[in-house]
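Fresh eyes needed here. I'd like your take on this protein's tokenised backbone:
***
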Amino acid sequence: MPGPSPPGDPPPPPSRIGRRPSDTLEHAVVPPPSRRPTRARRLVYGLLALVVIPFAWWLVQRPSNDRDWMPNMAVLPYAALDDSLVRVHNVRFTEYVSTDEYTPRHDDRTYDLTKLDAVWFVVEPFSKWRGVAHTFLTFGFGGEDFVSISVEARKERGERYHFLKGLFRQYELMYVVADERDAIGFRANVRGDDVFLYPIRAPVPRVRELFVAMLDRANALREQPRFYNTLFANCTNAIVQHVNTLAPSRIPFSYKVLLPGYADELAYDLGLIDTDLSFEAARQRFRVNDVAARYAGHGAFSAAIRSGLDGASRR
């Protein structure tokens, strides 16, 4: 048996055999976990910011009727119904010299619903790309009076339309009620775009209901503005919503609604255009530019642009 260690000698080192793991862990220096985001996390955060910040900005936008509007979009129309008579205030009949030089004019007009017997679908392609166009409706009262209702992006002074801006709440929605010399003449003669005037096959009671429904929407927008949207609240799908409200599922969902340049083709396929011609032949026949140029500003403008359509439709 070994004797005690001599005084002054250091104690022998403890044996590693039997040492508890806790003895080592308690005294080990463990570096704190790094709080620095990894490259992958930084990328994820950046992508989230690109999505969340614009979306949050988009959500806080609010439509307004109180802006510095373009002069020919500064006045909103509204209507009042008295039995079969509709009094429409602020019907536009702007006099144009060019797209940027014009004199806005408005007046009040009364329309008799008992005389309302026809509606036309107007298509104005304004781009080299086939899918882009403006569409609107124009109504006839016994061949004596005509008025157009056009759903448009309401622009501020100096502002130009761009379909991308229309996706991000940059325009309010406006229902323009206008004389055909303004709505059709401006597009055909001042802008120089092709304009197609298609007669629509529809029961007269539905035509009257459609006219009143569009004026009701114009009244609503005067009280509570809404945003225009390039895809979901544009000229064509507004018309589709009105039609489908009166005749459910009459116009099914189609990319041709989202791309108004194809809207006349869709209307033809659905049998809505009142013609026996092929689509291409109808398109040529219902183009009104030549007559519109000859009768620019003339009091008989509306009758004249329809005079060359005899035989093209069943009317």
About this structure: The mean pLDDT is 88. Strands lie at 78-82, 85-92, 95-96, 102-103, 106-112, 116-125, 133-141, 145-154, 172-178, 196-199. Residues 71-307 form one domain. The chain is about 30% helix and 20% strand.
